[in-house]
Amino acid sequence: MFHWLEKHPFFFAVGVFVVIAFAGLVEILPNFAQASRPVIGTAPYSTLELAGRHVYIKNSCNACHSQLVRPFKSETDRYGHYSLSGEYAYDRPFLWGSKRTGPDLMRVGNYRTTDWHENHMKDPASVVPGSIMPAYKWMFTNKTDIDTAYAEQLTVAQFFSVPYNKEVPMKDGSKKVVKMGSSVADANALALAEAKVIAADMKDQDVKDAVANGDIPEIVALIAYMNSLQ
Amino acid sequence: MENRPLEYDYTVAKMFMFTTVILGIVGMLVGVILAFQLAYPGLNLFLGDGLAEYTNFSRLRPLHTDAVIFGFTLSGIFATWYYVGQRVLKVSMAESRVLMLLGKLHFWLYLAVVASVVISLLAGVTTSKEYAEFEWPIDIAVVIVWVVFGLSMFGLIGMRREKSLYISIWYYIATFLGIAMLYLFNNMEIPTILGTSAAGESGIGAWYHSVSMYAGTNDALVQWWYGHNAVAFGFTVPIVAMIYYFLPKESGQAIYSYKLSLLSFWGLMFVYLWAGGHHLLYSTVPDWVQTMGSIFSVILILPSWGSAINMLLTMKGEWQQVAASPLIKFMILGSTFYMFSTLEGPIQAIKSVNAIAHFTDWIVGHVHDGVLGWVGFMIMAALFHMAPRVFKREIYSKSLMAAQFWIQTLGVVLYFTSMWIAGITQGMMWRAHDEFGNLAYSFIDTVTVLHPYYAIRGVGGLLYLIGFLMFAYNMYKTMSSRRVEESELQNASPMGA
After folding, report:
1. Which Pfam families match (chain A) (predicted)?
2. Does residue B278 have a known ligand-binding role?
3. Per CATH, the architecture of A47-228 is what?
């Protein structure tokens, strides 16, 4: 059979394809049958948080930080409860990372504060002596792209039924509604309202002024995202 | 009909040889910068404060991996295909205008994609999926390049005079099919300009932005099915294609065993794709997928070692060639590194070992002993073998080649030994508890302790880069030398002093 295949490139290629596609069919398809279902307490990202997630991705933070707590005592001691599949239901793309040059950030919102992040992004060694993380000073001046975050919200709501403007159950039994603007202007206004809350806890005067003037520097969005990781 | 050997057309092969060398330098240089940035964070500002956004680790890291995988390695694969393909199929590209056109189109489109990748990654336009960072417009361009490559490849195969396909061709076909399948599935995404607001606005935000079709755990599963097998069909399969052609040609020895080739080819095709799950051990993907990933990774040793042993036994009775020829040295040490790397990988895929190794520098070390020792050595060996035939000149300097071999070997050894120690140290420190059951170290302790190993890794990488520059110089001098070879060359490559 092999000799015959070696003389017939078309059938050879078909044979190779069938053999390599096999594993994907067995491993991947069954998992897709059970689409990611959110666990209780998992809410979609708000406009500003999603914009902050874009800043995180833009700067490849995931190259050095993971977002996956493995079920080991050392990891749950350090980072909190181990990760559950349903917690990632709204993560497109996933940001588990493959390398921990820095610590895991899956639940960083539980143990770091807005002003800690502010100092850390400006000068990492000022809050973590010996840190080898570079500073991200440009995030204090670059303007956040809220429009793209809003476009993404619209897209995932339309194509993947992500529940914006709908009630989602929280751990304490309450319901939460994550709002999505009805227009670009509306979305920007929502994001600005969120940004003002973050900026109130920050020290950088230029950032405070920018937010007061209706501009949102990237750092504010990034911190909103960091705080949402719980 | 005259009774003389076929003349092959190396136009396209030459073009890809140039990009192999140039993108190799770029990718490796960025890698060396990254290595030293980890040891000396001040280097994140090597072009000053103003350009820090574009010179810091996080922007350069995806550029390094993509430049080496899709710049250096893929160029090497294309260069060798346009050389090997014609020769084992016994047909010249010059025989068909369409083929020549497709080949050149393939090259120029590829170059355009490379340029757009460099710009977009530096600008921070990325989907964040490792080795699949490109946004949808570039993804579409990549698919077009790949289709052109496929047309060009199957066009050549369709015109062949040699009825039976040589082993190398099997592997090139598998490379084409495997990458096509993986790339398409992993990069399924929806451009977000398609979203329409309640107010009826559309086309909002950045036009190139997209959102993955898969969420969370599913996205991770598809990504690592891709990520691991991009290694399979970029770093293993086509490089095996190269050694199956170039080692017998260079040494004048026939492949040791046809049966072993068969077993290792079909075994590799079937087993490799299962192993992606080992990137997701202890994660939230189903347990059985993780277990399959572990088990198949160990089974993967068989087909991998099958090829490598076949290569080593090809030299049976001719080991004096290894001592005499630096070119054979590259190939044989490459095969040895392949064996080493395909043993190390399965060990890391064992659950208990993975618990320590995952997320650490040991994984980085594993990737690099494979890529530097196996992929890099084999591609350089292939280009060294091709150069005298393509440019009709003997290799400029044999002693430079030998010096390069030893410098790079030392570089690889420094790289993986330092990363082994760094990774295992880090993994052990993360999990250490004191006598009261509390964590023994804070995270930063596990970072600062690695400084010496990061510095050693930087030196290892630098040595490899220096070797690569020697390679580039040797190639340049070979091309521009006046000594032209008169006749078709057989077996061992002619080398200068």
Report:
1. FixO
2. yes
3. Orthogonal Bundle (1.10)
* A152·B211 Cβ contact <8 A: yes
Chain A and chain B share a number of CB contacts under 8 A equal to 270
DSSP assignment, residue B8? P
Question: How many Cα atoms are found within 13 Å in the side-chain-facing hemisphere of A47?
Answer: 28
Q: Which residue of B has its CA nearest to A34?
A: B218
CA torsion angle for A60, A64, A65, A66 (degrees, to 10)? 100
Total count of residues recorded for chain B? 497
pLDDT of residue A162: 94
Q: pLDDT tens across A186-230, in order?
A: 999 999 999 999 999 999 999 999 999 999 999 999 999 999 999
Determine the CATH number of domain B10-194+220-479: 1.20.210.10
* pLDDT(B495) > 90: no
Q: What is the pLDDT of residue B3?
A: 63
Q: Which residues of B touch A13 (CB under 8 A)?
A: 173, 177
Structure tokens at A166: 């709908």
What are the helix (H) ranges across B350-393? Answer: 351-357, 361-370, 377-390
Closest Cα to residue B20, out of B83, B74, B85?
Answer: B74
pLDDT tens string B207-254: 999 999 999 999 999 999 999 988 889 999 999 999 999 999 999 999
Is A13 in contact with B285 (Cβ distance < 8 A)? no
- B340 forms bridges with which residues in the sheet? none
Q: Where are the domains of chain A?
A: 2-33, 47-228
| Residues in B 236-265 with any Cβ partner in A closer than 8 A | 262
Q: In terms of C-beta density within 10 A (0-12 exposed, 13-18 middle, 19 or more buried), how is residue B436 classed?
A: exposed
**B contacts of A57 (beta carbons < 8 Å):** 126-128
- For residue B41, give the chain A residue with the closest CA: A132
Nearest CA in chain A to B269: A20
- Closest alpha carbon within chain B to A74: B431
- In the chain, the amino acid numbered B229 is N
Identify from B34, B58, B358 which residue to disrupt to test chain A contact, counting A C-beta atoms within 10 A and taking the largest count. B58
Q: Which of A16, A27, A181 sits opposite B274 (nearest CB)?
A: A27
Name the B residues in 288-317 with CB < 8 Å from any A CB.
289, 292, 296
How large is the ipTM? 0.94
pLDDT, mean over chain B: 94
Q: Which of residues 94-123 of A touch B (CB under 8 A)?
A: 94-103
| pLDDT of B483 above 90 | no
Residues 83-112 of B with CB under 8 A from A: none
CA separation for the pair A213, A182 (Å, rounded): 22
| Omega before A93 within 30 of 0, i.e. cis | yes
pLDDT tens per residue, range B286-323: 899 999 999 999 999 999 999 999 999 999 999 999 99
pLDDT of residue B293: 92
Domain boundaries of chain B, sorted by first residue: 10-194+220-479
Over residues B154-205, the pLDDT tens digits come to 999 999 999 999 999 999 999 999 999 999 999 999 999 999 999 999 899 9
